[in-house]
Structure to design on (705 residues):
């Protein structure tokens, strides 16, 4: 057996580990609990906890932590040691079923959107039995990580996991009903599957810590590109440099040890930008594994004297980073419900699930857009590097042809839903052709047997867009179930499905667009179709508290009204804080680094010109030097004018009590002023010798690994 298979999952407590350490009846009960068919009792939890404790101690663990995902897009953990004391004063290792099932945290110290007051601190973490535990840390001081949900004292969701789990259950319930109505008596469970592609940048550590903006805000507030950026198309899929290759090899190994199925790695479009893709898993596990991956990228990069940047747009002028979420549904028998090859006269379920996404995304496009509305993503969406801010679905010509001619399609001899082949050369074997092309400009593209949602930003948790998508599809399937139950009493399955698909497609096909999403023509066409164009976070977030969206979450038992409102407040407040941070950092860099340097530079240049003119009195000899000096002085003056204005803007913003109105002020007044300040600072950088500029340049950051 090779080293990869030997190491995979060695630090992950799998079902196989459990089977080797507990009686069969406990394993059976565990699986029933995991599949929602039984409740976890303290008796069973005690047995499982003891098995986990023994495994963890054998692996060198000293602590355990309830690992959860608060509304920060980060993870949180509080480490407790296994050590305890017996009544006789001797030491022992203790980890009970109660320790496994429940933890406690201070809810008022995490974002809660008003659900908790400062004095209302108690909150709970609860073991998520569906996601495997894992070990992290160095030999001799490892910690057992227990994936958990995070709730307030009264049960309100304060994290990313709870609504995700609720949405998965809602979607499973409705999809199972669909399967039964369509004659599927074998399927007992439906899995929501997810595969995540994670983009990121790497920079040398010695340059990173000299850039206050990168350290404090995650992005460069100032900086101009060198002559070469990404225009030569030589970085994407290019040869991986040795230093990066070593980093990636260690990253893969660390991920494999904790059971994360890292599959693909490559250079991305921008210099020093890379991607890692994980294999498909159930959505909840996949979200957890993406969080593990982001954390591991940072830790392994640090060991290689690099810093990983997960911000959506750390550098202006080159592509930003996204997180593509590949979403699908499958049965417990291994059937992908979004595989068009399953489509036949006797199996029309593919059409039901396809049209459910089309209708759901059209009806709730604004809510789905809101899940990607973050300060970092504002710099990325709508540029010719990421999908536009307008939600649309790419299906490809073959699927559109099926839907447009649904009544005349011969499903038993349908070449449209089965792959053709491409002949290249007699020395190269023919290759199967997918049912559709891959439209990289589409926010949501059908890519053969799944939907790829390309709008989420690289730093965000995929939990939010996925729980919203799950809820949308579950809600539509609920309507379809009611329709099918009524119509199937007097009609055949084929008649009912064809009628439903035709009706819903004609009502919602405005959301389908197979063209170039980067063109102005599409923006104009989308406006004619009545599709929402929510250009930034401030325009996007209010969709979360529209009445129909609140009711959507309520009737599917995903979020209560108060939970929906709280998330809106959390995200608005996060936007305000991030804007304030970027602007404050920009002001500090100008005041403490750029301005003092420019004053010295002007003084030195002035003295140099003055001394030279004493030797060479001819004024024309120094015309260009004097012009450059004048230009630098004028740019310096403009820089200070915009810096003063930004300080005034910040003072005005803080006085606005309504958080959303404050966000609008940041978006419409403060950020445009920061862009004007950046323009002046970047022009100054262009005029100054690279090795003299007081902070590392884009050349240092993007071309030195």
């Amino acid at each position: 057996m090779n080293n990869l298979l030997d190491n995979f999952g060695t630090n992950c407590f799998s079902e196989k580990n459990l089977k080797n350490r507990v009686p069969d009846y406990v394993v059976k009960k565990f699986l029933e609990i995991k599949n929602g068919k039984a409740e976890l009792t303290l008796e069973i939890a005690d047995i499982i906890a003891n098995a986990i404790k023994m495994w963890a101690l054998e692996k060198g663990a000293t602590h355990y932590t309830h690992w959860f995902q608060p509304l920060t897009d980060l993870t949180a953990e509080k480490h407790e040691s296994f050590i305890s004391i017996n009544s006789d004063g001797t030491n022992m290792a203790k980890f009970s079923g109660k320790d496994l099932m429940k933890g406690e945290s201070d809810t008022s110290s995490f974002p809660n959107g008003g659900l908790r007051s400062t004095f209302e601190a108690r909150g709970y973490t609860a073991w998520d039995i569906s996601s495997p535990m894992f070990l992290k840390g160095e030999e001799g001081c490892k910690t057992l990580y227990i994936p958990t949900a995070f709730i307030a004292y009264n049960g309100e969701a304060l994290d990313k996991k709870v609504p995700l789990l609720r949405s998965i259950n809602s979607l499973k319930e409705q999809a199972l009903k669909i399967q039964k109505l369509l004659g599927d008596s074998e399927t007992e469970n439906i899995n929501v599957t997810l595969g995540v592609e994670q983009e990121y940048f790497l920079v040398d550590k010695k340059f990173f810590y000299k850039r206050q903006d990168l350290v404090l805000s995650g992005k460069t507030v100032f900086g101009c590109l060198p002559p070469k950026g990404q225009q030569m198309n030589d970085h994407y899929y290019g040869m991986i440099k040795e230093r990066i290759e070593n980093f990636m090899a260690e990253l893969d190994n660390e991920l494999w040890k904790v059971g994360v199925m890292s599959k693909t790695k490559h250079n991305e479009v921008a210099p020093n930008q890379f991607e890692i893709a994980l294999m498909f898993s159930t959505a909840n596990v996949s979200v957890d594994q993406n969080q593990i991956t982001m954390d591991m990228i940072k830790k392994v990069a640090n060991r290689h004297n690099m810093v990983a940047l997960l911000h959506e747009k750390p550098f202006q002028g080159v592509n930003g980073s996204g997180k593509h979420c590949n979403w699908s549904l499958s049965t417990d028998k291994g059937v992908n419900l979004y595989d068009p090859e399953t489509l036949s006269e006797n199996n029309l379920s593919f059409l039901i699930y396809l049209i459910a996404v089309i209708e759901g995304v059209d009806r709730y496009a604004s809510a789905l857009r809101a899940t990607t509305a973050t300060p970092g993503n504002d710099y990325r969406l709508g540029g010719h590097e990421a999908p536009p801010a307008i939600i649309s679905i790419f299906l490809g010509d073959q699927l559109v042809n099926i839907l447009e001619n649904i009544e005349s399609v011969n499903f038993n001899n349908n070449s449209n839903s089965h792959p053709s082949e491409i002949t290249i050369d007699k020395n190269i074997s023919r290759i199967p052709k997918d049912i559709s092309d891959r439209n990289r400009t589409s926010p949501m593209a059908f890519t053969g047997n799944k939907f790829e949602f390309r709008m989420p930003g690289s730093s965000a948790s995929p939990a939010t867009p996925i729980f919203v998508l799950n809820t949308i599809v579950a809600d539509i399937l609920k309507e379809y179930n009611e329709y099918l139950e009524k119509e199937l009493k007097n009609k055949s399955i084929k008649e009912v499905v064809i009628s439903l698909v035709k009706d819903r497609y004609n009502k919602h096909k405005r959301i389908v667009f197979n063209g170039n999403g980067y063109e102005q023509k599409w923006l104009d066409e989308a406006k004619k179709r009545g599709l929402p164009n929510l250009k930034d976070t401030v325009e996007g977030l209010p969709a979360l508290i529209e009445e129909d969206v609140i009711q959507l979450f309520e009737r599917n038992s995903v979020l209560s009204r108060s939970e929906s409102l709280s998330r809106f407040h959390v995200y608005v407040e996060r936007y305000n804080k991030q804007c304030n941070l970027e602007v404050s950092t920009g002001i500090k860099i100008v005041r403490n680094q750029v301005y003092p340097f420019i004053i010295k530079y002007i003084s030195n240049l002035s003295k140099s010109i003055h001394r030279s003119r004493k030797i060479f009195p001819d004024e024309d000899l120094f015309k260009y030097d004097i012009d450059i000096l004048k230009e630098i002085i004028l740019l310096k003056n403009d820089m200070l004018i915009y810096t003063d204005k930004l300080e005034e803007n910040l003072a005005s913003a803080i006085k606005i009590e309504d958080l959303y109105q404050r966000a609008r002020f940041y978006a419409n007044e403060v950020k445009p002023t920061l862009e004007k300040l950046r323009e002046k600072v970047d022009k100054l950088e262009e005029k100054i010798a690279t090795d003299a500029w007081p902070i590392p340049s884009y050349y240092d950051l993007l071309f030195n690994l």
In short: The first strand starts at residue 12 and ends at 13. Residues 166-173+187-417+436-555 form a domain with the Creatine Kinase; Chain A, domain 2 fold (CATH 3.30.590.10).
